[in-house]
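Researcher: Batch entry, complex prediction.
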Amino acid sequence: MKDSVSLKVSLPVFVLVFEVIIIALYAVFVTYDDDTNAKLQNNETSPMENSLYRDYPYFADVQVMIFIGFGCLLAFFRFYGFGGMVFNFLTATFAIQWAILMQGFFQFYYDGKIHLGVINLVNAEFACAVVLISFGAVLGKTSPVQLLVMASLEIPIFAVTEWAVLKYIRINDAGGTILIHIFACYFGLGVTFMLYRPSLNDGHAKEITSYHSDILSVMGTLFLWVFWPSFNSALTFKGDDQHRAILHTFIGLSSSTITAFALSALFNKRGKLTMADIQNVTLAGGVTVGASVDMMISPVAAYALGVMGCTACFFGYKYLTPFMAYRMRIQDQCGIHNLHGLTGIISATAGICAILLATEETYGPSMYQIFSHRAPPEGDPQLLELQKVIPGLKPGLGRTAREQALYQVAAVFTTIGASTVGGLLTGLVMKFPSLASPSDKNCFNDELFFELPSDFSSVEAPLTYEGKGQMNPMDTKV
Amino acid sequence: MKDSVSLKVSLPVFVLVFEVIIIALYAVFVTYDDDTNAKLQNNETSPMENSLYRDYPYFADVQVMIFIGFGCLLAFFRFYGFGGMVFNFLTATFAIQWAILMQGFFQFYYDGKIHLGVINLVNAEFACAVVLISFGAVLGKTSPVQLLVMASLEIPIFAVTEWAVLKYIRINDAGGTILIHIFACYFGLGVTFMLYRPSLNDGHAKEITSYHSDILSVMGTLFLWVFWPSFNSALTFKGDDQHRAILHTFIGLSSSTITAFALSALFNKRGKLTMADIQNVTLAGGVTVGASVDMMISPVAAYALGVMGCTACFFGYKYLTPFMAYRMRIQDQCGIHNLHGLTGIISATAGICAILLATEETYGPSMYQIFSHRAPPEGDPQLLELQKVIPGLKPGLGRTAREQALYQVAAVFTTIGASTVGGLLTGLVMKFPSLASPSDKNCFNDELFFELPSDFSSVEAPLTYEGKGQMNPMDTKV
Amino acid sequence: MKDSVSLKVSLPVFVLVFEVIIIALYAVFVTYDDDTNAKLQNNETSPMENSLYRDYPYFADVQVMIFIGFGCLLAFFRFYGFGGMVFNFLTATFAIQWAILMQGFFQFYYDGKIHLGVINLVNAEFACAVVLISFGAVLGKTSPVQLLVMASLEIPIFAVTEWAVLKYIRINDAGGTILIHIFACYFGLGVTFMLYRPSLNDGHAKEITSYHSDILSVMGTLFLWVFWPSFNSALTFKGDDQHRAILHTFIGLSSSTITAFALSALFNKRGKLTMADIQNVTLAGGVTVGASVDMMISPVAAYALGVMGCTACFFGYKYLTPFMAYRMRIQDQCGIHNLHGLTGIISATAGICAILLATEETYGPSMYQIFSHRAPPEGDPQLLELQKVIPGLKPGLGRTAREQALYQVAAVFTTIGASTVGGLLTGLVMKFPSLASPSDKNCFNDELFFELPSDFSSVEAPLTYEGKGQMNPMDTKV
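Model: Structure tokens for the complex:
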């Protein structure tokens, strides 16, 4: 293989450099937060009230999603199972440790230190999810070094955007629709635009699945499905807010799933089910309920959002992904624009509607907790009145529903702008030579980056015998 | 393939009709319960005491069992891995959203509304488990539309039975032995009786496993095994009751597992292990401890129950399943009668013994909490006395142990009766044409309902070369 | 196959004998502990404060590691997937029920009874992990009966060692580095030394992986990775101690993972990644942080420990494992000496450093809780002073940091000594005939102990055609 590339130098050098940087920064800046610091424990602190017990269950669930859910889901290519699962592992691990620092500087920095507890890890896992979603756009066409470069740039760009949106625009986005899904989607599209490979529009011999890889990928979907309620609710207020978030996510996913099956059969010419739909479109409901997931939208609205998100996602895969690839030079390998972009826009819109419709009649005084920026500002006597009923209520900005809705719109556009520009720049950097980028011919092939067991050749066998005619890239471009 | 069937019309129509019905009913009847309603939160409610934190961990564990445990376990056929895993996904998702409504009307309906929280989802998952167990009887021989029809009938029949037994007969059944396992088993047998296919008694060329499908199926078993303690304890009283339920389930499963290995080797003519035993018989202990799982039966009794249940289950697979198929027209594809029926009967009997043996000497006053129908009725002065020691104790019916035991017997027979009749009727409906039922020849074959990757033909290869002689349906009829 | 062996007699006899023993001992000695005993519940006990809710989440996570994590990880051989996963299931189940008794006698025995709750199960799972690690040394070369014999001896030897070390030497070892990892490693090496098979040093035709088995094994790694923080923190003090344990484990694993990728590429002659490294070396950080996991070592130290442990582990696989096999007659099949031994020694050393460096300035008064043997002894007036600030503080031994460090050293040597001798003796017993030990030729082959699906021959196919030249035992000897 003359066009082979090696990780022998690039990967170790990248890792070594970053480890030195991370060790230096951790040594200087990272310390324990109040709940992990032994010195602050005394007879006035109760061990079981440590924040650990509020955060860790959700952290563990999200870990399963990140490492096993994404890992299996991305292993759907027949010859790229190692790559999908293992590069996900590498990228996720790297992204989290980097995000701890980057988010730390913006969100958890005081007294000259970043303060660390499990809550930071939860936040870092969300940042990591952003990177993994973007990864979906370029799956099979990038080396692990390129992925690490992507992560090392996407994480700080995300951290800045997140900080700016949360601190200056101040939005409601419990499920991370805007900051996670929309950001990740447009960043990924920016990257893949820069890495455009015209020859891949005609399909690639290895861009296919196998019976076993399809099953593995469905397992990934199931792990994501099962723990998605934890993902969408990990950062809500505790109590009824988190309870609603879990309920809505479950309902949205359920309606989304049966809709995906129906559409898959309906639009297949022989009335059969397509595994790519089951692997991806079923999950659309989880994203679609995101922006309003903790609000009093009523269970039926969560159900309807699941159906709508799923429908948009399905047609996105069917029509938009090929269109973008052929006409817009955007090759969206896993269709992240359908599963995270279109659904994200619907979700953000639904969130805005829910904000506009929110009244004290429905929410009672806790409206000012959920829509915290609508709470009266510091010093307002109404605030004191409310704090009698909702003890922990923090002063807000006194925004009206309409104002908050406009800020949400601003946040969507800011996020799309920042992520697109960030993605384009990052894509440019990823084109640097010496990042071990695979040639077109070597895409979607584990042979390039892995020592392979001897039966890999037999995994290939059917190809040799049945020729290229069997493969329709549009069927497999999930 | 001339006898091909298509899902192009039937599946979308079914889903669309049901989605319209569900949206209408959700819109009119479904609202939040007290723990998900923002309006009811104030300075007297403590967020961390929300019922979410008591119910969600068990809900999440049961989710893993339903979607991943069952999904992998049912994917054991070599050519029906997509079907096993994916139809499980579809059926489960549908069953849960339907059960939320059906159980809602019977158990959570007041003030003209069904009130929703995670506790409803837990209950709905149990109803869903009922459907999936019944599914095991007809695995590989039904279309997804037939499965949805089955679920749409089984759920209301189950909800009525559950409500009648709990409200009028009033039983102890913490692990759901009677209402879940026995109901599901006889319902499934009723359905498969109606769908009898004489030609399949001679074995089917595709009714075999593969090396990979067997491993996948064991993974399913392991997920069920690991989380079964959560399943058996999700609806017990909190505190020591739930603690015992977890302990007994674990012990029962452990003794059941090593017994299954011993029997598998002992009754194999070459002294080898059979994967079907490991996939199924190991789990028998989880069912067998069910009916007495929260009682003070002592750890050794849980151990012994595991051994007994496992033994009954093993011999059921060996002798009863073939007998039922050949002589009684009951083709029990996954042997649910062994894993859920026989063990269920043993478990119910053990539960009755535990009820008869329960004394205040062993349980202390909390006996009247566990055996709640034995508590003194409203107005009885003894009740007030007991409530001083057990604050939350509810008035009971003042039943004696003997009376309660008789009611348990009545519940078993009622459940068997209702489920058998329900199963037969449902099976009749499932025979309607246009439900895309596969022909005998197309059973156990993903080709009928799925777009398949090109290597599916090579998954088939060994068959072509080695002929039918390799396959012994009795070996594979797990 | 003339050198075939059968489980027909040995396995059932072993299981039957043990079940009789266990039932007898459970009946006489095992009862409920205070949190599972209904009789002790009254108006002064609060159900939600039952120890169940503190222990069960960690128990459930460790269950996933034991049954699914280890199960998948050990299924990495191409022809031994059933064996790896299923013998792990059998051995684990047996080990736990046996450990409940053995640890029970040493740690939970009072009033003439072993008292049982979920906390016993957590401890038993740790004992089980010890057996499964040792199993790694002899994977593929032992019959299930031999494994049960090993477990039946290793569990009591472990229970005695654990009891002696905890009761007489008294150490800090929150993550179980010394008692779990070091014990398991040297016990396993002792066993494999006795079971030395010279012919296997030249490689074995079946000692290879397949594309699917490698993916399955990575899934096992991911499950271990994800839940390792729960493993390392399950037995720490609640509150900030457990919080730190989770944080450090996560950080150590993260740095270990990216280091493993870098080393794998750097030391491969073509700059490719080796799956065995990703399956094993990535996990080294979890062991390395173990001994100091709950101490105030600072996040950067956890990071550095991950890098160090990973590096030692990697070079162990590369140089030490072959050396031990050829020169020392120690065939360490899964390289447990690298993943548990070398990292264990590093971890124990780091723990000693952390003990020596611990000051009240860093820890505050809770230093005497974490380093409980440094607390003033009963009657010391300083103890009363401290108990005012740390209410639950128990009297200690008044050791200095230096003294405690010396006791840690003593514990390491005691553990290595006990485990090595125990392993050698156990290996001797395992050589008894009639334990169905496989011949050299039949190692790493499911055919010996399992009824196999007909496609097992095609799993073998590539071997037949491509000959032995493809296989390099050093590549696959993970």
